Amino acid sequence: MSHREFKDPLYVQFARIGHAVASPVRIELLDLLAQGEKTVEALAAQSSTGIKNASAHLRVLRQARLVETRRAGTYVYYRLADEDVSRFVRELQRLGRQRLTEVEQVARQYLDDRDELQPVALAEFRKRVREGKVTVIDVRPQDEYAAGHIPGALSIPLAELRKRLSDIPKHRDVVAYCRGPYCVLAVEAVTLLRKRGIRARRFEGGWPAWRLAGHPAATGA
Prior knowledge:
This protein is an alpha/beta fold. The chain is built from ten helices and seven strands.
């Protein structure tokens, strides 16, 4: 076998992954699936994509073996093939912000400029959780919390936050987290909490960063 006979088919297969993530919608779908398995209908709604279009994108991801499926009655549930896919998405995002000024500008305008206080990094967050010095709230939808969350975190979806402020212990710092570094749920939650006089910050890595670091996780409502 010549070196071309070895390399050519090899790089064709690598390109299948590149093709699968050559769409902003497909990258967002992978990001959403990092929270747990979801139906096509849920993914379409959360990515503001039509069901037919979402299904087509999911087929491409499945052909590249980045996602897998299971059927329950009339519903098809999608999930990431394994944790390596979640790590790949996180690294893609990190590289994008590091190498592309456009990513940095958009992130700074929407996230950083709206955040009065520095987001909590993973090491600091882990330390404060271990010491029991903060109230942690998970502002993702309930189904994502049930699929996996930080032990001890209160489940208060952003849509319910205004009505459930009394559930948050007074006189303690609050750290809110959501789907990841580019999820806006925690940003909006922190803005609301500060307007109500609660000292709040967001955990910048979100649930995927906590899980991928190998920290303890809990499931269930």
